[in-house]
């Protein structure tokens, strides 16, 4: 057993060649190799590469019931832009490794982090998904709307999918306007596509909007944000706000949003959130507690903070 194991594992000799050299059958070589593992002559050791945090990922998955966690290496002194770049690279690698070609993907397109993901993806040799669909209203101020459409369009082009845009604002002035827009045949078609999604790629936001969202015309006003904070809101996904325990903040605000309904979102099998940084810890924790996401790409320090409390 030892001789066969050394020839195979240390010297790289094929099983057929071992059989011929030792004048035994190839089947016996295979049995001896399996037996060598059973009795401890051969042991498997996995050496984790620098910058890979498999144990931390496993702890996150166990602690928060995640299907998958990806933890990226970020310098402790990194600024917000560097953190976003690292998260983008990590999520891009994850998507390149896991997209099957048959997915229907929903994307929250008002996200600087998701734009960083798309910027770091390479064109797929084979189709990565059938379609990518905006998860919330994509209309707004022209410059910011260009950001939203570029994110979705570039992702669709890279993975060889159809891009489906929501031709409506993310937030409207009243529930009546929202209800009227949702009866439009084009929005009815979007609602149907939302119900058929197999995966989402979503940024996880604070109540305080990002620069892109703030300039888009689709952000809550300062007074509305104050009221949301008073009601315990810590984060938002697709303009749907929630508390630290994951419970949604419902009311007049929610009735003015044109975005995938929460029930439809939670039915999607794979819900990937991409976020990191100290300022996002509560927003991420709430999204995990409420099942808003079931897969996460984050940075090491954020992951450690989530596991400490």
Q: Can you describe what's shown?
A:
- The structure is a single chain.
- It is elongated, with a radius of gyration of 24 Å.
- α2 packs across α3, α4 crosses α14 and α5 (80-98) crosses α6.
- The chain is an alpha/beta fold and 309 residues long.
- The longest helix is centred in the N-terminal third of the chain and has 19 residues, at 80-98.
- It is 46% helix and 13% strand.
- The strands form 2 sheets. A 7-stranded parallel beta sheet has the order 1-9-8-5-2-3-4, sandwiched between helices. Strands 6-7 form a two-stranded antiparallel sheet.
- A hairpin with a 2-residue loop joins β6 and β7 (240-243).
- The chain is built from 14 helices and 9 strands.
- The termini are far apart.
- It has helices spanning 2-10, 15-22, 26-38, 54-64, 80-98, 112-119, 142-159, 175-182, 185-195, 211-214, 222-230, 262-266, 281-289, 300-308; strands spanning 68-72, 104-107, 131-134, 162-164, 199-203, 233-237, 240-243, 270-274, 295-299.
- The model has no long low-confidence stretch (mean pLDDT 90).
